[in-house]
Amino acid sequence: MRRVVEQWGTIISIEVCDSIDERAIDACVAWFARVDDLFSTWRTDTEIMRIASGALAVDDADADVRSVLERCEQMRLESGGAFDISFGARAGLAPRPGLAALDPSGLVKGWAVARAGDLLHDAGASNFFINAGGDVLTRGHAEGGGGWRLGIRHPWEHDRVAAVLVVSDAGVATSGRYERGDHVVDPRTGAPALGLASVTVVGPDLAVADAYATAAIALGPADGMRWLATRAGYEGMGITDDRAVVLTPGFGRYRVS
After folding, report:
1. What residues make up the domain containing 89?
2. Which residues face 128 on adjacent strands?
3. Residue range 26-53: mean pLDDT, rounded
4. Which end of the chain is more exposed for a tag (fewer CB within 10 A), N or C?
């Protein structure tokens, strides 16, 4: 059973190897739309944008919004400020579409995909794969057995992959400067993040992996990959601007090419 939808400005694919009611996939698609209604920074009517503008108090926001904001604050503290969703409010950057005073995008996509996985699991699925523009959730086995095989986007050569992984029961998140260039800013300094073109993180919680990948980009090649290596249960692969590949010690067990 497979479904492909367009949401959040990207393509989301859902593949389920178990026999379940197709309404479970419908529920996932509805959930993705709900997340857009709450968190999109491309619209002015979402709760996150209303909080940013002062039109909505955090205490009056949806419980999911409050939960995400709490997790983002945890990531800010854990990363020493390299992950900071409030940076846009003090950045002084030129206005552009999608730029927001409060932007949890670096965590919320992974969080939303993980919640969709919970919906599938509750419906009886044990073997499935969700890919939302590079944020991937895997559970169980692919058709025919074995782990799920996925390619990591190459930062510069779009007809190639930078690596091929085989993963089961884990989340995989990739953050890259190839999408927004030097608009990726180190929140601690206000300067463009340089040195790492992309970072891929594998770990048990996709929301955390998503935030870790974002933070590592800001921290840079040496500090970012060294910091990732200290995150228990998570492994990372960085590709530097000069095309070197840097791995945390345990990443090799996922990489097949």
Report:
1. 2-253
2. 16, 139
3. 96
4. C
CA 100 to each of CA 40, 89, 218: distance values in angstroms, whole numbers, following the listed order: 10, 7, 18
The whole-angstrom distance between residue 70's C-alpha and the CA centroid of its chain comes to 17
Name beta bridge partners: 2.
Answer: 15
Q: pTM of the full predicted structure?
A: 0.95
Contact 66, 164 (CB under 8 A): no
The pair of structure tokens assigned to 226 is 């060294």
Query: Quick check: helix, strand or coil at residue 197?
Result: strand
Q: Where are the alpha helices (DSSP H) in 144-228?
A: 206-219, 221-228
- Tens of pLDDT, residue by residue over 2-30, are 999 999 999 999 999 999 999 999 999 99
Check which CATH number belongs to the domain holding 151 and give it. 3.10.520.10
The CA-atom distances, in angstroms, between 26 and each of 5, 14, 31, 34 are 11, 11, 9, 12
The total domain count for the chain is 1
What is the distance between the alpha carbons of residues 129 and 148, in angstroms, rounded to a whole number? 8
